[in-house]
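Problem 3 from the worked examples.
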Amino acid sequence: MIRIKNVTKDYGSNKGVFDLSFEVQDQETFGLLGMEGAGKTTLLQILMGFSNLSGGRCTINAKHCWKQSTGIKNFTGYLPQKITLPESMTGLQFFRFLADLRNRKSLEKAIRTADAFELDTSKKIRDLNQEEKKKLAIAGVFLHDPEVLLLDEPESDLGEKAKVQFMNLILEEKSRGKTILIATGSFATAERLCDRIGILRRGMLVNLDDVSVIREASRKVFCIGFRSELEAVRFVRESGFDVLNKNATQLTVSVSGELQNFIKVLSGYKVLTMESIPQTLEETFTYLYGGDLSD
């Protein structure tokens, strides 16, 4: 279990984290959402013992994050936001280097993770592109099969295919009962992977809820193409849904809560196309809480 109680790290000029309190339960996947500068990286560095507190207390599996950080590192896998890798090594040499540091012999978990990413570990790290380096770093995190995972912006630098591969890896770890904390700026990532979501704004926790609660409250936005402009106009007048934009036969429509009623209403119209429009974290936050994440 990860316990964070009244944690403060004040860098001045309103930078840092302030009076944070929440827990990540055993075998839970928790999403820490926020824009750049919200304090996500600061908190994960505190949890790993890389930075001491200005106030408060935090523990992982009852170990103090500052005083017992060495013990925490034995059972925790940490992916930093900015990765630095030994450029002269191959991927496989890098895995052996990590295994030596952790006094482990087996590279199996890291190699299987790299294979899942279709990554060539025989290449020198300096010859890898940024996405390949991120894949290698993620595979290295899994090398010692940690029971706790702290992942800072794990999907940054990954293409769409690699993001799907990463999500599958996390879902597998979830099924194996791992405790996972993901710091991300992507609402879609947190919604897909996490059991609960906490939202950070300027170092403060402004909301914490089950994903199911946030999903039910959040809105979905669709771009709908009708057979005729007359049909689109009829939908605007009769449907009762919030139309965000109208362009001839195409409407952008906002839907809150469950989709069942919306689909039922839509079946009464002549629709040619319907496309879901992903909502950014900032758009979701603004809709739910009436404010800007950067305020």
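Problem 4, a separate protein:
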Amino acid sequence: SDRWQRRPPGRPRRHFVPPSTEDAAGTVRRRPPASAVHECGQRPLVDSISGSRIVGGHDARTGAWPWSVSLQIHQAGVRFAHVCGGVLVNKNSVLTASHCVTGRQDPHSWRAVLGVLNLQKHGKHAAKRTIRSITVHPEFKRETFENDIALFELDSAVRYSDYIQPICLPPAHLYPHIDNETECFISGWGRTAEKGKTSPVLKDAQVEIIPSSVCNSSDAYEGLVSNNMICAGSRSGGTDTCQGDSGGPLACYHPSTNKYYLIGIASFGVGCGRPKFPGIYVRLSQYRRWIKSELPLILGTIALTLRISILLSYNLDFEVNPK
């Protein structure tokens, strides 16, 4: 129900955009509403890079991570409890970690909450959605956390706003350029210390992408980090995802496109924030084909509906105004 932990082998396993701008000619041009912007990886309420630095993190600013989703399980009565993070990739789809749904794959027991900073104060910009379907990667292995990725299909599409936006799924050519010069961030509502409490307020932190060779050394993960995983955090410890952050985004900013891309999904680790044991994330670059094979099943319905509505409006227009 959280971010799964491993112990090392040998021990038991276990900045605001103005509403309008004036050009050189003195013409005032209003910024279009976020609902009209269909680009991914944009943060309408915040400048391109957050100044704030989960374990070792700070409270996120309003609208800082508009693709962050709280995935919650139904409890007694009308109560829901946050279980894992998720990442909005289009109006109907949220990516998360497969291990989050182990033993609870009934979509009707889940809901997604979007557009919130504080889980105890949803506010007018929040959106809540029931879940239509949950697709777990067919080759997910709980013992090794291989292929720890799943897709939630929302019952109805969300409306994009300053508070709800999709993150970009990165094209292949971006991956060679992920290095220590790239600004990468984690965010979530999980524990703020290894044995601490979860946070009702979204936290974020900047992290370093750490080479797998370093993470797989004999005094660290000892080869447990496969090519399908990515290591991120701080080599000296202190900055990490923790229980309740699983399924949340490892998001990296690319100045060349002025967009954020989903590089990883929080998966597992040894404790939280320990030196030599950074967080392990699903390496999204390895799953583009699987994600694309699943998304069209959802997007196809939207495209068909759109096509029908366009044809209907065209035919009506033709009947009223024959050319």
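Solution to problem 4. Confidence is low (pLDDT under 50) at residues 4-32, 48-53, 300-323. The chain has two helices and 16 strands.
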